[in-house]
Fold this protein.
Amino acid sequence: MRKALEGTYEVDREIGRGGAARVFYATDLSGKPVALKVLHPELLVSVAADRFLREIALVRQLDHPHIGRLLDSGERDWLVYYVMPYIEGPTLKQLLLRDRLLDPQATRRLARELLGALGHAHKAGIVHRDVKPDNIVLGPDGAVLVDFGIARAVQLSGSDRVTRSGIAVGTSAYMSPEQIGAVDDIDHRTDLYAMGCLLFECLAARPPYVHKNENVVLQMHRLDPIPDLKTFREDAPDDLVRMIIRALAKNREDRWRGAGEMVGVMVE
């Protein structure tokens, strides 16, 4: 990989990996640090590289302080990569593994920042499809949602075998019922459902649906009643509980109409 990208990026070390890509700390020609993400080789068996790169290029129009910008993307020597700014700080997943939960004020701040980011993207017609703690970096200037458009790009450029993979196009703990059902018209309300799951976890120290079998979790999203957040966190503020419970409605018509409406229910 270093040889393939020589003259463009200097790759230092691997700093993470997800369902779609390995992440490396690198620097560009000016010495600026970046997060360089390389698609897993096994994905390329079923994903058309040119279609993937066309799809993620659409994300370049997004310009918001809480969205990780797409700086570059391309293919070199069978490596398909995309580049985002390197943000110093832990992921929300790392923070929750350490602290287990957030206090209500930190949860409100996180919700405002992320829903602001989602609202900006949704107005541009872009749905994230994989909102989860691993895709949120807690930087010096607040939360930053990364990997916008990647799940959609994998889905649209891949075969049925890849697009049905929960790892590739979503994560079971945060997937909406319609996403699990593989409906064709996934829209912004899938992201709002994932936000409900994520904020539930921030307050309750666990996502709303938990089981050791991933397939059971998927069925719980579709069929089980919405858990009572107060049973896990008695002091959970009522405004946050209302916001989360409506976001978790099974029928997307019953959820918040948009990120702005969802964030508006919170008190200061």
